[in-house]
Amino acid sequence: MNNHIKEQQVELSHIIHRHCENDGVHFTGIPQLYFIRSSFKSTPIHTIHEPALCIVAQGEKIVVLAQDRYQYDASHYLVVSFDLPISGEIITATPESPYLCLRLDFEQKQIVDLMMNTDQALSKKSNSKPGLFVNQTKAEMFEAVLRLVRLLDTPKDIPVLAPLMIQEILYRLLEDDNSDSIKQIAIVGGHGQKIAQVINRIKQDFTKALSMEELALSINMSSSSLHDHFKRVTKLSPLQYQKQLRLQEARRLILSSETDAATAGFRVGYESPSQFSREYSRLFGQPPMKDLKRYLSANK
């Protein structure tokens, strides 16, 4: 790594540190931009990650999608281009040298507009690409990101300049390796857009029984083709994706003490308490009540 990139990393970590006195996820004065700080390693945290660019300024993290593990640090960035059920675990962090990260959310429309204005296109006709990837962070990307976060010191400039700088950052993503993973969401009538539509339908009705035939018909694909492209993007089948949504929502209900385990399972679509407990244990490592006890003990 050259000295220029090291200097950029140091500046970025100083800016994030200055705006994050405490651990947690912090809103900034720039819409779509968040800072994340953690003084300690974490256990796996399960979430539905929306489309975003994540750049680590300090520390290291592992993200798991289905059976695939992605590790990234201050030399690499993570991109999620679809709503994906993942788990994330911070593996390098101390009070003296906390994990520091920025997350820049983006929308499909921003990618569509940028591709139209720059004549971007898929590199070639190909199958659907995974909706998550890790790339090495280049100096041009660091510089674009630094220009954006420096605006936090001049709030009056944010409304005019931030959209332009976010556009540059997204442009850098589209010019970088693995960019087809992002471009595919903007191709009208393409497989990427169709899979995004299916994901939205599953998210809206995840407690209901899933019909592959109805989903496939809604996007004018065969059931086998939908299954194939969906798994290429999410690393999961539609049924597995729905199961993750159900279990994550059930866990939220249980850990927030909104309801007991049996009721939570029923509310998210499970008819069998024993099946719910088995699948909950498989995803989260422990059955619901032991998981709740562990959570309460860790958050005293």
From TrEMBL:
All residue ranges annotated as the HTH araC/xylS-type domain in the record: 196-294
Keyword Membrane found: no
Signal peptide positions on this chain: none
Coiled-coil ranges (or none): none
UniProt KW keywords: Transcription, Transcription regulation
Keyword Protein transport: no
PANTHER family reported for this sequence: ARAC-FAMILY TRANSCRIPTIONAL REGULATOR, TRANSCRIPTIONAL REGULATORY PROTEIN
Protein name: AraC family transcriptional regulator
Phylogenetic placement of the source organism: Bacteria, Bacillati, Bacillota, Bacilli, Bacillales
